[in-house]
Amino acid sequence: MPLISRPIVDPAEYEEFGCHPFTDSPATPDKVARNVFIRRQVADFNVTMADGKIILFWGFKDPDVSGGDREWPSKLIRVKQGQVVHCEMKPAKNTHTIHWHGIEPSPYNDGVGHTSFEVKSAYTYQWMPHQAGTYLYHCHKNTVLHFEMGMYGVLIVDPVGTGTGANPKLAYDPRPGDSADGIQPGAPYAAESILVFDDIDPRWHTMDHNLGMCGDDVGLDRFEPKYFVISGVPNNKTQTDAKTAIKAKVGTNVLVRLANASYSRVGVKLPVDAWVVEIDGRPLRYNPDLGSYSKPYKISANTEIELATAQRYALWIPNIAAGSHSITGTFRHWVTNKMHPGGQAIAKIIAQ
Amino acid sequence: MTVLSRRQLLRYGASAVAFASATTTLSSFVFASDDEVTSGDPEPGVGGGDVEVDLTIQDVDYELIDGSTVFMYAFCINGAPPRIPGPVLRVREGRDLTVRLTNLSAHAHGFQVPGMSGSAIDTIAPGASATIEFTVGKPGTYFYLDPMFSPVNRVLGLHGALVVEPDDDSASSGAKMPYNPADATAAIQALFASFGASSRFPGNRWNESREKIWIFNQIDARWCQRAANGEIDAVAASEFANDFRPRYFTLNGLCGIDACHDKDTCPTGRIGEPLLLRCLNAGLACHSPHIHGNHVFMLSESKGASGVISYNSNVIERDVWRMESGTIQDCLLPFTAPPDVPPGAWPPKQEKFPLRYPMHCHNEISQTAAGGSYPMGLVTDWHIDGL
Ligand SMILES: [Cu+2]
Ligand SMILES: [Cu+2]
Questions:
Q1: Where would I find the beta strands (DSSP E) of B113-165?
Q2: Nearest chain A Cα to B228, which residue?
C-alpha cells in the first residue's frame, strides 16, 4: 500500500513550535505614548458550580483593585476607540500570554507563542483599537487548556460619540455616508447585557499548566462538559444574578453582547425581535467608500442564531416591551451537534 | 480552438502552449502548484477549454504528525503520488469536465461534485473504471468527493477542491473577481472595486494568483481501521455521526507545524495584495476558524450535499467563521496593515517583517493531536512580508 509521508521538519523547530515555545520578557517594540494603562496578573479562582462543587479556574486579576483576584471570568476591560492601550502582564509563575481577540496589533502584541513569544516575567502589550465593538482577551499559551481553564475576559471598545435622550450610549460611531437599514445608525442604547457562554469539563480542571504540550496523550480530545455558565454565573443562578439578569427601562433600547467562550456550538434565542448590529468587532453597515459592505439584519423572535466558538454578536433590541425576556443559550456538541446533557443556560432582560 | 488565458501562460510557462487546443488532457502531464513552478507538487488545473482528468482511488497508509500511520483512501491524478486532499481541479465555467476514474482500492467507491448535475458515478467496483462527463456550473468552490456512505468516505480521505473560474471575471469597474458580474452581488462587486482604489485598501487589485485553498478534516484512527477491515457499509455509516471521535485535525492534510510550513497553505504577500481563501470542511466536526492580523470578508457559501453556491449580498467581516460539516465558504483576506497598531508605531521599526499571524480553529480541541501535543492541530500561519 502506498505511504503518504508527512514532510520532513527540523526536530529542533518541531520542539520549539510545540513542546518548548520561545519565552521572553522583552521591552515593547515601537513603543509610543499611551492613553490607558492596565495591569493584569495571573491568578487562581475557585468558582462554585450549579451543584455546589467548587472548581478551580485560572484567570487574570487586576492587581490595582482590591478584590481583583475574586472576579472570574477576568474583569471587563473597557476602552475607547482610538486610545493607545498599554497592558502590563505578569504571569506570576510559569508562562502565559494575552491575546486581544479580534484586535489586530503587531505580532509582538498579539500574544501567540509560536509567532512571537510567551511571557516569562513581564511584558507590556501595546495596541490601539480602531473600531468600537465586542472583543475578548485570553491567554494563548497551550490555549486548549488555558482557555478552558478560564483565562479570558470581555473587552469592549466604546465609540467616541454618545447617543441622546433615553438612549445615551452608542454601539459604534456612525460615519458620513453609512447606511444601516432597519436600525438607528450607531445602535443607540440605554441598557446593556454582556453574556459570555462557557461550558466546563471538570476533568480538565485538575490538569497541570503544561499538560498536553509534549506529545503525551492526556485526553484533550475528549471534552465532556458537565457545567454551563454565562459570564461565570452557573446556570441555576443566571436568571437571578445581576450579572446575567439585567434591568432595562421599558421603551428604551437594549444592546445584548454575546460571546461564545465554550467548546460547543451555542444557539441563542430571544423572545423578541432583535437586530444584529455588530459581529466580531465590526459594525454592520454599508459604505463602500469607507470599506464597509454589510447590513444589519433582523433576528425574529424565537429564532435561534448560532455562535461558533469565539464569535461575538451584538444584538440591538429597540424600544423594549415590558416583561421578563429570557435569552436562552443551548450548548451542542461540536461533532454530533446534539445538545449536551443539561446544556442550557438562560439569561434575562427585565424591562420595567 | 481555445485561447490560453494569461494566467495559464504565467502559471505553466511555455510548455502550456501544448495545451492550446479545445480539449486539454491532463492525463500525461503534472502541473506545478501556484506558488512553486518547479516543484513536483502536482496541482493540475486549466483555465481555458474542456478538461479531462484521469483520477484513481487508492488505499493508502497516511502518516500523521506524531509519526503514526492510519489507513485512508486517497485520490491521485495520473500516476502522480496519491494525496489527501486530492489535487485541485480547475475548470472554466460552462466547459465540460471529463473524469475517468479507476478504482484501485480494495473497496467500492463513487464520485460526485455536489452542486453539479450529471456529475455522479454511483459505484465503481474494485479494479473497475468509469467515466463521467458533465458541464461545470457557476464560478466558485466545490468539493469533488466519494459520496458513498456519506460522509464516511469523504472524511476518510476522498475529497478535493474543484475550482470553477468565471468566463467573465471583471466587474463594471474593471476589477477582477473570482465570480461573474452577473452572479456577484453589489456588495461583492463593490468590495473588489475598492481594492487599490480606496483609502481603506491602498495597493493592488485582487488577481487570480492571489488564492489559497484551505480544506479542513478530522481523523479518528478507529474509523480508519474499520475501513481497512472492510467494515464500512450502510450500518456503519448510520453509526458514524454519533461514534466519530476525531483525534487529529488537519488543514490540507497537514497538522500544526507542517501546515505552517506548507507553501500551498500559508498565505504570504505584501500589504495591498488581497488574497482569496477558499475554505472547505471535509470533516464531520463544526470548525471555528479564527484569523489574527486581519478580519476576512465573507463572499460566498455552499452548504452540504446540495453544493449550490450562494453569493453573499451581505458581505460581513469576521475574525471567526463557522464551518459546518461539508460546507464551503470563500472569504477574502485583505492584506491590509494590521489595523490596531498605533499610527506612531507603523510602519514598525523595532519589530521586523515578515509579520507572522496564525489562523487556527478556536474550538481548541482541534489544536491537539492524539489527545495532546498542542498546537499540532488545525493551524497555519500567514505572513505580511512588507509594505
Ligand atoms: Cu495561560
Ligand atoms: Cu481567541
A1: 121-124, 129-135, 140-145, 159-165
A2: A1
Q: Do B257 and A13 touch (CB under 8 A)?
A: yes
pLDDT for the residue numbered A209: 85
Q: Which pLDDT belongs to residue A212? A: 86
* pLDDT tens digits for range B159-205: 999 999 998 888 778 899 999 999 999 999 999 999 999 999 999 99
The least confident of A21-30, A36-45, A208-217, A271-280 is A208-217
Q: Does A10 touch chain B (CB under 8 A)?
A: no
**Hey, how many other C-beta atoms are within 10 angstroms of the C-beta on A216?**
13
Q: Which residues surround ligand 2, an ion (CB under 5 A)?
A: A 101, 310
The per-residue pLDDT for range B292-345, each reduced to its tens digit, is 999 999 999 999 888 999 999 999 999 999 999 999 999 999 999 999 999 999
Run of H or E residues at B273:
none
Q: Residue ranges per domain, chain A?
A: 11-19+33-351
ipTM: 0.97
Contact A17 B381 (CB under 8 A): no
Helical packing angle, B221-228 and B234-243, nearest 10°: 170
Mean pLDDT of B86-96: 95
Q: A87 — phi, psi (to 5°)?
A: -125, 115
Contact (CB<8Å) B368/A1: no
Rounded CA separation A69/A87 (Å): 17
Q: Residues 46 to 105 of A: which have CB under 8 A from any B CB?
A: 84, 99-105
Q: Is A30 on the interface with B (CB under 8 A)?
A: yes
- Cis ω before A202 (30° cut-off from 0): no
Does A275 reach chain B within 8 Å, measured CB to CB? Answer: no
Q: Do A114 and B358 touch (CB under 8 A)?
A: yes
Ligand located closest to A261 CA: 2
Per-residue three-class SS string for chain A = CCEECCCCCCHHHHHHHCCCCCEECCCCCCCCCCCEEEEEEEEEEEEECCCCCEEEEEEEECCCCCCCCCCCCEEEEEEECCCCEEEEEECCCCCECCEEECCCCCHHHCCCCCCCCEECCCEEEEECCCCCEEEEEECCCCHHHHHHCCCEEEEEEECCCCCECCECECCCCCCCCCECCCCCCCCCECEEEEEEEEEECHHHHHCCCCCCCCCCCCCCCCCCCCEEEECCEECCCCCCCCCCEEEECCCCCEEEEEEECCCCEEEEECCCCEEEEEECCEECCEEHHHCEECCCEEECCCCEEEECCCCEEEEEECCCCCEEEEEEEEEECCCCCCEEEEEEEEEEEEEC
Helix (H) or strand (E) holding B329: strand B328-333
Q: Which domains does chain B have, with CATH numbers?
A: 14-166 (2.60.40.420), 186-214+243-384 (2.60.40.420)
Q: What is the pTM of this model?
A: 0.93
CATH number assigned to the domain with residue range A11-19+33-351, chosen from the 4 options 2.40.10.340, 1.25.40.10, 2.60.40.420, 3.40.50.720:
2.60.40.420
B319: chain A residues, CB-CB within 8 Å? 101-102, 280-281
Phi, psi of B320 (to 5 degrees): -135, 130
A314 in Cβ contact with A204 (< 8 Å): no
Of A210-214, A267-271, A337-341, B37-41, the one with minimum mean pLDDT is: B37-41
Nearest Cβ partner of A104 from B294, B342, B375? Answer: B294
Q: How far is CA B175 from the centre of its chain?
A: 23
